[in-house]
Amino acid sequence: MKRLVLFDLDGVLVHSRENMRQSWDIVLAKTDINRTFEDYFALIGRPFGDIMRCLNITSNIKQIEDIYTKASLNFISQVTFFPEVEETLIKLRDLGVKIGVVTSKDAIRTKLILKHLEINFITVQCPDPRIRGKPAPDHILMAMVEAGEDPANTIFVGDMPTDQQAAVRSGVDYVHASWGYGDTIESVYSLNCISDLPDYII
């Protein structure tokens, strides 16, 4: 049985697309950026600055991120947990599995969201200027260090190509959340519902 399960946040534990869309609309209204929300959304999973660079936006990135983050905080009530998330996390906890989060969302918003769950996350990894974001393996590796577990005992549940790439590069098994925002990856194991996860890891 796996001893550590790490989850991506957006698209895996929480449904946040509308929050992102409205926040990006604010960015478009307050800047001269002309990239659509679909352009932005296709790249989620990476740190915000990396997304901007992928969109060929190279100036005022910190200002743009501040606008986006402030708007996202204002719309935070629109972020909801997917069905059966809390029940599944509780079941994993009761099985003795350690639970963590590895996300590209900043720590402030991540904490606001996770505080609604009655779960003790052994590690929560958010963007850090000293550590490369996904698809680099750094945050998954840091999560395993904090949890005291090896790659062989760890799985990462994600929904975007960057999640799968980070898992491969960190040496952990990857499980694809088919209810999330990314396309199903044929070569990896996919779950149709998060409630199926306990049976998979046992």
Give a quick set of tags describing it.
alpha/beta; 202 residues; two-stranded antiparallel ribbon; six-stranded parallel beta sheet
What does this structure look like?
By secondary structure, this protein is an alpha/beta fold. The strands form two sheets. A six-stranded parallel beta sheet has the order 5-4-1-6-7-8. Helix 6 links the parallel strand 4 and strand 5. Helix 1 crosses helix 4. The longest helix has 14 residues. The chain is globular. The termini are close together. The mean pLDDT is 96.
Overview in brief:
The chain is an alpha/beta fold.
Per-chain topology:
Elements: E1 4-7, E2 14-15, H1 17-30, H2 37-41, H3 48-54, H4 61-74, E3 80-81, H5 85-94, E4 98-102, H6 107-114, E5 123-125, H7 138-147, E6 154-158, H8 161-170, E7 173-177, E8 189-191, H9 197-201
Parallel strand pairs: 1-4, 1-6, 4-5, 6-7, 7-8
Antiparallel strand pairs: 2-3
Helix pairs in contact: 1-4
Q: What oligomerization state is this entry in?
A: single chain
Structural classification: alpha/beta
The helix count comes to 9
Q: Give the fraction of residues assigned to helices.
A: 40-55%
Q: What is the arithmetic mean of pLDDT?
A: 96
Apparent shape? globular
N-to-C span: 5 Å
Widest β-sheet, arrangement of strands? 5-4-1-6-7-8
Q: Please report the total strand number as a whole number.
A: 8
Largest sheet, strands/sense/barrel: 6 strands, parallel
